Structure formats: C-alpha cells, structure tokens
Amino acid sequence: MIEKCSIPGVPLREIVMIFFLVFAVQEIFGYKTQGWRRALCIAGYILSCGALLLLFYWKPEWDVWANCIRCSLEEADIVLLRTTDEFRIYSRKTVTWISVSALIRSRTDYPATAEEDSIFSKAIMKPSLQVKSIQVQKIRYVWNIYAKQFQKVGALEDHLTCSAIHAKFGSGLTCNEQNVRRVICGPNSIDVPVIPIWKLLIKEVLNPFYVFQLFSVCLWFAEDYMEYATAIIIMSLLSIFLTVYDLRQQSIKLHRLVESHNNIMVTVCRNKEGFQELESHHLVPGDTLVLKEGKTLLPCDAILISGQCIVNESMLTGESIPVTKTHLPQADNFEPWRMHCAEDYKKHVLFCGTEVIQTKADDRGVVKAVVLRTGFNTAKGDLVRSILYPKPMNFKLYRDALRFLMCLIAFAAIGMIYTVCVFVLNGEEAGEVVKKALDVITIAVPPALPAALTTGIIYTQRRLKKKGIFCISPQRINMCGQLNLICFDKTGTLTEDGLDLWGLLPSERNCFQDIHNFPADHSLPWGPVFRAMAVCHSLIVWQGKIQGDPLDVKMFEATNWVKLCFVAAPVEGVTILHQFPFSSALQRMSVIAQEIGGEQQVFTKGAPEMVAMLCRAETVPSNFESKLLLYTAQGFRVIGLACKSLQAGKQSTDLTREEVESDLTFLGLLIMENRLKRETKPVLEELSAARIRSVMVTGDNIRTAVTVAKNAGMISATNRVILVEANQVPGSFSASITWKPLEENKTEDYRSLTERKIRLALESGQYHFAMSGKSYQIVAQHFRHLLPKLLLNGTVFARMSPGHKSSLVEEFQKLDYFVGMCGDGANDCGALKVAHAGISLSEQEASVASPFTSQTPSIACVPELIREGRAALVTSFCMFKYMALYSTIQYLGVLLLYWQLNSFGNYQFLFQDLAITTVIGVTMSFTGAYPKLVPYRPPSQLISPPLLLSVVLNILFSLSMQIFGFVVVQEQPWGQTHSTALSADGALEQTDNGYKSYENTTVWLLSTINCLIVALVFSKGKPFRQPIYTNYVFVVVLIVQLGICLFLVFADIDDLYSKMDLVCTPTTWRISMVIMLAVTLAVSFLVEEAVIENRPLWLLLKKTFRYHSKSQYKRLQRVLEEDSAWPPLNETFFSDSVTISVEGNMGGHSNPTFDSNEDAL
C-alpha cells in the first residue's frame, strides 16, 4: 500500500509513502532526467578522473539531484526513496515500462475477473497498453493511473470477500488473464542469484576505507616508502579476499535455501479449459491450484477453498508439528475475507515453503487453493527479504567513531597548514611540499583504523562459535555489551519443551470429583472424559508415528487407546467427522465425532475460562474459579474439556462453529505440568545480580506465567504482583483499565493484612505489573500515556500474540532500553529480529533471520553472550584509543621534525607501523571475557568524559615527553655539533637520506616505546575482560617488542643504526630517555587507574554536579519515585476514544504463519 503524506515546502501530490511490512516506511520523490544536466555530469566524471562518479556511487541522492529535475511521480523516470527513520537512507530506482500490448489485442481481452477495482486493470495505460513500475527490495510496485500512486502487485486484493474469492477464482483464470497477470506481476520465484565474484570485488574495493587506503599507498610509493605500502597492499588484498569469500558463501547458502521452491510442477484449473500442468514460476495471484495426494512443497501462499490439508510448517515455525488447514467459508457478507476470519484466517492459508503431507477432499471432489501471494510477497519471500535487507542499527559507538575520524581529519588539516608554511618558508619545491602535506593525512588518520576496530568482533565471534552460539550479524556483538533488559519466551525457553500430564479433575452433576493422577495404576474409565481425550485433538499418523502438538500427544497417550483396541475395546471405533482447529483468538478447538453405530457428539477443549463460558451454567461447578486458581497458581497448565450430543439428521459440514460450540456440558479440567529447565533459575539470578531486567513474554495463561516467574526468580517472594486489566466498554469506543493485586481469595483479615503489605511494597518500589496481550493492546490504543509507566515495572506479559511480542520489544526500545529477546525461534521470530540482540534456541529455518542462534536449547547462552558482548565493546574502545594515540604520537613526532625540515625514515615508519602497531592490533583483542557479570555496563559511546579524558591526557603526556626530548637534545653540546654538520654538509645529507640527526633519533625512540606504553595502559582487564596476563600472546609480543626497542636504544651497531637512520648518542642521554619513558609510563598508568577507571570517583562527580541519565526509562523512574499516587491500586480509569493501532505498528521481521498482521502494507 502507498499513502500520501505532507512534508513542509513540498507539494502533496509529489510525495507518497511506501509502507514495507518488514522494513522502514519510505518517502518517494519523482525526478525527470535532463539532457544538459546529464552532459555536464559526464564532463565532470571525465575531468575528475572518475572521482565525481565515485562520490555519486556513495551518495545516490546527489547523483539524482545533479542529473535530474523534480517532477510529479506521474512524469518521473527516476524515483528517489528516503527512509523516515533516524538514518534517512536514500536509494535510487529507475522507472521501467512493461508492455502488455502483445496480450491485449481487443477490448474482450482485458482481464475479466480482475474487474474495475483490481490493480491489474487500473495499472494498464491506454492506448499504449503499458504498465509503469518500480522494484523496491525485490517487491514490484505498479502505477495506479486512477489513484495516482504506486501500488504493490503480486498479491490478491485485500478487499475481496469470502464469497468473491470462491465466485471469481473458484474455477480458475483464463489463459489470457493468467498471461496478463504474469507479465505485470513477474515470475513466481524467490530468486536469490549467487552474486558473481567480480561484483562482490568491485563493491568491496569501492568502499571508502579501501579508497582511502589506495590514496595512501599511491602517496607512499611516490615517496619510495615501498615496504610498508607493499605490506598494506598484501593485508588489504587478504582482507578483501576474506570478505568476498564470506559474502560469496553467504550468497551460495541463501541461494540453496530458496532454489528448491522455484522449480516445482503444479496443476492449475483453467476457466472453461479444465486442468493444466505448468511450472510453478508461472503462477500468478488468482490462479487455482489443485492439490493432489502425497507430499507437495508449496511454491506460493494460497487460500484453501475446498477440502482439508495437513501441513508441515517447520520451515516457518521451527516446530515439526503437523498443522490442519480448513477451507475458506463461503460467507455471504461484505466484509473482506481476512476481517471476516479475524485471527483465524491463517487456518485457511497454505504458506510458501511449507509441505502439504496429507489432503482430504470434500463433496466437491478435489482439494483446491487460490494463489494468494507470489514470489517475494510470500511468507518465505518475506523471510528471505529480512536477510537480504536487515534493519539498520543505530549504535552510538559507530556514530561516535565517525565523528572522531572527522576530528582526526580536522587535526590533520591543521598539520597540513603547518607543514605547508614551514616548507614554503624554507624554499622547498612545490611537489615536495604537496607530498609532505598529504603525508600528514595518512599519519593523522590511520588507514588501518576500521580494520583494527573489527578484530575484536572477529575474535569474539570465534569464541562464541566454540560455545555453540552462531552469529549472522557480527555488528550486533558490541550491542550485546549494552543489553539491560531481556525478554524471554516461556514454553521451550524458560520451561521444558514438552508438557507432562499431571492429573485430571473430572466433573459430574455440577461437582468436581476426585482427582485422577498420571501415571496411575488403573486406567481412565470409559466415558465422556475418556472420549474427549481420545478424539479432541489434531493428531495424525505420519511416517508410522503419531505426530502433532505435544499436548495432544500426551493427552492421547494417557488414554492407552492403542492397548484398548487390542485388549478390551468398549466400542468398535470412533470416527472424527469434522474438525474446528485450535484458534489462538478463540482459545479452543472442537471436533465432531461419532462412535460406530452411535450418535454424533461435539468435544471441545481449550482455555478453561473460555470453555466454561460456552457450557450450560448448571454443568459448571460452583467452585470452578477457586479450583482453577489453585492449580494455575502452582504453575500448572490447565485445559478445560466439554461435550454435547448433536441432533440426529444434521450434516456436520453444514454446522457453523458458533452452533457447534454452544450449550456444552462441562466435563472437567486436564492438568499439565511444565517444569522449569535446570539452567533457568541460576541464569535469571545471575542477570538480576548484574542489574539486567528479565521480562516474560508468553502465550500462556497469566496466572501460570506469574507462578513460573516466581519459581524462576523473576519475581521475588517479597515483591507484589499487580494485575493490569483493560477492557473495551461494551457498546462504545471507550475502554477501562483496572489495577488490582494478584492474590488468592482469603479471609477479610488476611485481605486487609495483604493490602497493608502491598502498600509497603509499592512505596519501596517492589512491585511488578502483569497483563495479558488483550490488555496490552487496549492500553496501547486507549491509554497510550500510561504504557511507558506500565512497561517500567511490567514483568509478565501473557497471552501475547507474535505481533504483540514485536510491538512490546519496540516499546521497550523507545524507553531507551537495550533489549535482548530469547525465544525458540517459532512465534518469536518477529521479536527476535526487532530486538537489539535476538537469540534463537531453535536451528530451524524459521530462526534464520535471528542475529544469534544457540546450539544448546537453554538460556545459559544469554549471560554468555552479554559477557562476550561487553568484552568486545571494551576491546573496541581499547583498540580505538590505541589507534588514535599511535597515530597522534607519530603525527606529533613528524611535525616536530618538520620544524627542522626532517622526518622519520622509511624503515623507522615501517618498524612503528608494521612491527609495533600491526602486531599489537592483532594480539590486543585476544583477551577473553571476564567470567562474572558486574552490575553495570561499559560506556556505549566514545564521546564520554572518561574516554575522552583518557585520550586527551595521554596525548598531552606524549606531547610533553617528545617536546622535552626534542628541545633538551638540541641544548646538548654534542647534539648541536651533529645537527650543524648534517645541515652544512650537503653530501652527508644526501648519503644519510636527510633523516639522521640527534633530534630524529631521540623523537623516534621516545615515540616508538611510547606506543608500547599506551598499548599496555589501554589493555583493560577487569571488570569486563580477563586480566592482561591471561593474554599470553599479547604479553609475549609486548616483551619482545620492548626488548628490541631497548636493544636499539643501547646498541652501537653501525650497520643497524645506518639502516634505521639512527645516530649514536652518549650513554647518559640514552639513560635519560629511558627515565623519561619510565616517568611517562608511571604517570599514564597512575592516571588511568586512579582517575579514568575509578568508578566511585565518577559516581561522586555525577552526584556533585547533579548529572542524571538522559535515558527515557531513567527519567520516568525519577518521576514515578516522586508520585505517591502511582500505581493506583484497586482503581479503574476510563478512556474517551481509540488513538493508536498497536498491531499496525509492527517493526522488524514478522512471521506470517503466526502473525495476524502481514497485511500491514
């Protein structure tokens, strides 16, 4: 869908907003290419030797603005897209024309089923019979000539009703209609071609980092600095090769993931022409598929319009549980089909990439499905797009790194001006002045800086892999170091995957009977409860095994039905005539079954509260609520059972679900146990000790969820739980919200005592909110201003749909939390993608979009990831500080020597750049993560007072030492003699390359060993990384480098000194230099430990200057601490009207199999 928006100063008709399901909203602007502008740009490309073309490659919007003029979208041949998020990323798209004239020769050839309100008829321009289109992130949009906007093709229109789908597409499209749609929509294929190596190579080489390296290398070759230039070329080529290889492997892997769906033979219905076999890439929305017996891989999304299917959706859900699909009802109303079916519409949709394992035809003969979506519009295509176009991250470290680079460039500009002035005033040649000035840039801005920053991430990724945690988005590793809130799914994540049957509480004559425990010595007696457990499920026999929902399997196995069939079967058999599959919206499932020779009966199972509402009041025990509370409060999963007999003579297929699921007889409660995983409690305690919030987001019952949260340690025994309930006010657009303590019903005395305890807990801030998905949605719609306050202490969110989970994660992010999401990769897929760090405990394809995947299905990976993330983040800071200091030390030394028209020699540069800095850069990052999580996080930005102070002070220490050495050496009588001789004797200067001098020797030795000092000082250990002595390689490297440097200081080997452009100095001066270095080391180390790393000192300064965190959640905490009326216990508020739609506010990757909102376009 595309909607118009208004932007100040721009005509309304010229801007539209393209809404992408998974990706950011984008604004679109129309442009028309102008010939003279194009000619000027080509001339600019030639005159700039391609530099302008490279700039336009990096900045596509500048390319469009230079070559084109603004126009309406109707006239445009180029469109410019801009995301509306904080990144404001531009992309350029060319408008293409699709001709359908060869297919439409007369008026009768126009698509008949695609009537006037169809995009296919609205997109064809007459009389040219062409369609105007653009392709954005693999999705094709065509120009609607009536609405004057681009609209998506490749999917059936949303406005179609159930009856319209049956009437228009039930008998299929004609050949001509199919051909027209195919040309407009494009092929039904999720085509991810393997990117050629030359393309990957060019894209990588044109990275600004490598372009700057190329500039540096060319300059070094011009200055005969061959060795280091060659070393940089080798390292760059190696880096490019590894990156291209990695990208190529990813491309091959993704290609293999999708290629199987592009070449499948299918059977379709042709209107008035019978059945036709064709390849699946020819399918279009509206085609009618015929599903035959046996396994079938679905090449598209389709709506089942006749018969029934059993589908394996493990590709999308991560769970190998067969799912039953029923046909779309022929409802005769004016509601769009998806609105009519509400959240149950997924029960009628077969998703691309899933496998049909069984089909069952009805009285209409064959099983048919209408193609709903094709290509990248499908569920599978959407998953692939989420990998191809991941959500960009906004992490302060990378933004600050760019700012710091800009500062270094500004720093370099000052040095260039200084260099030009010094060399020009001394009468140097213009060419030499230019080379020296440009050289300052390559010194001040180290070309190896970006590579050095990524080394820590690469090593961390390797360590994580050894621990069974795989990462497809390495940039997110640093973000893991900032996580301060983790959302956990319950079932399969905090608790064991399977449920164990604990007991059955049968009900007869309005009273609960004695509980029947499992496993029991005696079998369950034959009766209505036994029959309900034997037939009310969606199990199938597949590959010789009973398969289906684990809950259903446990329930069926408890009946011992297989044994009964061979020993003492009370009946010949039971036939399941019709099934109403489980619906998360209705919270129940039902079947119509018949004993052989007996009457037809309805059996229903589901959420106890829902089942009780459908039963006749006289059959529900009076103590139903207290019994339910008793078991849910203990953390049991409770299922309600009910049944009724059907009147003879009625066809089961003619009955609606509402008729079937009414006036039921309550049969009892099935009680199931869901045990906590062994690792759950210790992990949550560790996170709590580290002041990392834990939140439960589950689809289970709220009381069960609260009990599990208490057992797991999320909610301590002294803390109170407040249930937040929000409801729509019947017959109006307003809603109500109520806060009440979640306590068991006890005596008045107990209740008054409890209320006093709760009030004390509230005053001390020891309370937690619990709410259901329904309440969450109503709060987000009607009480938007209360949502942040509720999230601040919200710990349990129950009955949450996948859409709710993604929305909740985003709402936490809006409060400036760094949010992690840990789930089993099934219905958590959307939230896993939206979170700063999504950790999937499933290795199924469904979780392929999750940044992190754990081989071990337990939450023990969460603290491990946070530990490694913190270590990687601190390593990045250490490397950044070191690289900034190394370049500044070298920069200051060179500028000092420029004062005498001198500089470092090539081998001196080579030793500092290669033997010192490169080796340190590679080994410094080897330090592992500290095993204990401390209750605070490392800084998230470079522009923080401690970090900046550390860099600035160390620069001042280096500058002081170098200037002191430079000035003092000149005042020595032996120093003046050598310098004068060197300057006066031109021949000697020629022989010595103009570098040998006491000043050069002093400054170079001081700056080289200074690089080792800052490497040692900046190599932080505790509390986020292990002590430096555990990094044996780095310690050995430092010792060897220091040994070599001291050898160079005290050695008197003429050949070595000549090669290194050094001169021999008196021993007293060498000892003086060592003393200067020792003082610098002591001062640097003392300042770093006593000031920079002194956390109590910085906390005291914050308190003294009344500095408060700017994070939204911290601000809100301070406000609520002063609000004595919060939370309003046992109070009810009312709203006026609906304000915001939560479900429409989805972000990140959503899994259409679970999510009811893939129509958010």
From TrEMBL:
Coiled coil: none annotated. Residues 152-225 form the Cation-transporting P-type ATPase N-terminal domain. Its main location: membrane. It comes from the Eukaryota. InterPro entries: ATPase_P-typ_cation-transptr_N, ATPase_P-typ_cyto_dom_N, ATPase_P-typ_P_site, ATPase_P-typ_TM_dom_sf, ATPase_P-typ_transduc_dom_A_sf, ATPase_P-type_domA, HAD-like_sf, HAD_sf. The keyword 4Fe-4S does not apply. Belongs to the cation transport ATPase (P-type) (TC 3.A.3) family. Type V subfamily. This is Cation-transporting ATPase.
